[in-house]
Each structure stands twice: as structure tokens, then as C-alpha cells.
Amino acid sequence: MHPYTLLAPAKINLYLEIIGDRPDGYHELVMILQSIDLADRLEIRPNGTQAFRLTCSHPQVPTDETNLAYRAAQLMKQEFREAFANYGGVDIILDKRIPIAAGLAGGSTDGAAVLVGLNLIWQLGLTIPELQRLGEQLGSDVPFCIAGGTAIATRRGEKLDPIQDLDNLWLVLGKYHSLAVSTPWAYKTYRQQFGHEYVNDHSEIESKTSNINSGPLVQAIGQKDNQKIGQLLSNDLEKVVLPEYPQVAQLRDILQQAGGLGTMMSGSGPTVFTLCQSQEEAQNIKNQVRQTIVDPDLELWVSKLSNTGIQII
Ligand code: C5P
Prior knowledge:
The chain is of the alpha+beta class. The protein has 12 helices and 12 strands. Cytidine-5'-monophosphate (C5P) binds at residues 26-27, 29, 139-141, 156-157, 183-184, 187.
């Protein structure tokens, strides 16, 4: 039993459409999800005890059962009692590099990494689809984070159809360090404001869901038409988050004016990104935005689209 070090990449949404309500209280979604190479690093080491111990480099990240990495370990213990009895607990040392409450699935990807890591340490031999089914119980984005790449995500976000990878593009990400958006708040507010437009009929939900496959953005991705991809980025949650957080709306405008293929908020925000053709273009845009917004609270990153999920290093 040796320790494993895993890289857990963040994701962005290239597309997020809210279709309607689900009986389980969640929303029916149609999304296109994309991994990026901004990643957390987790070391998972057997500790010879009957406990899971989580430590994190980021002081604001909880290390108790509210953390998805911890919950993933508990879920594995509950599902594989014999393996837990044989191999015992682990220390999880989380080096947090993805901003928190940012719309980048930072918590979900850590949970995904713990599922992958314990599968190895406890020698369970679970396949990726089996791990993804376990991941569904932790959060809607966890199954995607396990496999990564570029994928259409429907239902709650857990049903995945991988599509043509888009790994040759760069991006600039911007987020105000002290700003966090609650995902439940964003969806609840969307329901309050746009619930009257929700589709309730099952067959209409099915047809909206299947339309994405032949829709213009998936076609543009298939054809690697980068200009079109940039123009077709779309996120329904911008309609509630941008009016509530004018600072984010302003950051989005400034990023957009600085150039690139297209600009959008990721997930429930408040991270905003611009897709770029090259690293040089991304770096130029980052420098321009830094000069326009002279606020030390604004964090900017240059990153690359990635075609992988959880990686063992
Ligand atoms: O699944 P996850 O825990 O990541 O979702 C966080 C929150 O986002 C949920 O509690 C819910 O408020 C909202 N959500 C939703 N519909 C989805 C996914 C998430 O309403 N399909």
C-alpha cells in the first residue's frame, strides 16, 4: 500500500441551459463541460488508523464532512466495508489551487480524486463508469470530473456524452478573491425569476436534451471552428448572477473588450473566462485587464483546455 498523488482539474462550462424542474428538486440541465489544466493536487496516504484525516493548504476550506473530499472517503467506506476493514483509513493532503466557490467545480474534482485514489489504494478494481455512478451521490459535477475532457452533460448534469476534445485552446480566468457565489442561491433565484418559462412536459424535455447533439455549438466543436465556439458560449445563470454582482458584470465586459474568441461566466460564477487561440493572446489579455482593473482582490490566471480528468502522477 503506497501513497498516491493525484491531479484534480477544474472545469468550465461552455454552455449551460436550464430546461426545467426535476422531481428531486434539482434542475434539468443541458451543458457542455470542459476540463482545464488549472488543478488541485491531492496526496492520499494510508495512515494505519481507522480514520480519514483531511488537511488543506487553503485556510478557508473546511476539512470536516462538509468537504467533498472527506465525504467521498466516507462514501467509499460505507460502500466497501471489507476493504476499509482490511486497509484502514487515509490521510488526504489537499493542495488547493482552484479558487473556491468559483463555478469551477473545485470541490467536486477533489471528491472525484478521492474516489479514484481509494479505488487504487484499496485495490477495488472499479471501472470509470462504476466510479462515476458513486460520484453521482456526491454531486452533479463529480462524474464529469472523474473522466474530464469535453462532454455534453444532461439531466442533473451527471449523464455524460463525451464529444470531440478541444484541447488546443487557451483561456484567461478572472475572479475576485473575496467574492463567492452560492450555487443553490443562483439556481433558486433563477427558478424565482424564470420558472414560468420552465418546460414540464417529459417529451419536450427529452427533445430539448437531444437537440444539443445536433446544435450549432456541438457542430462548431466537431469542426474545431474556434471563432464560432467563442460566439456560441452561453450560460443561463448569467441572467441572475450578473445583475446581483455588478463587479462580475464589469469584469466580464472588460475581459470581452480585451479580445479573444469569446467571454462568459463559468457555472454559477463568479469566475469569468475568455477563450483564446494561443498562450500569447491569453497572456496579453491578462496583462490588459490587470492594467484596467487595479484591484489587488482581482485574481487572473492563464490556463489551457485539457482532455483529461483525474490524473495519477
Ligand atoms: O449537485 P451539486 O451538489 O453540485 O449541486 C449544488 C446545488 O446546485 C444544488 O443544491 C442545487 O441547488 C443546484 N443544482 C440544481 N440543479 C442541478 C444541479 C445543481 O438546481 N442540476
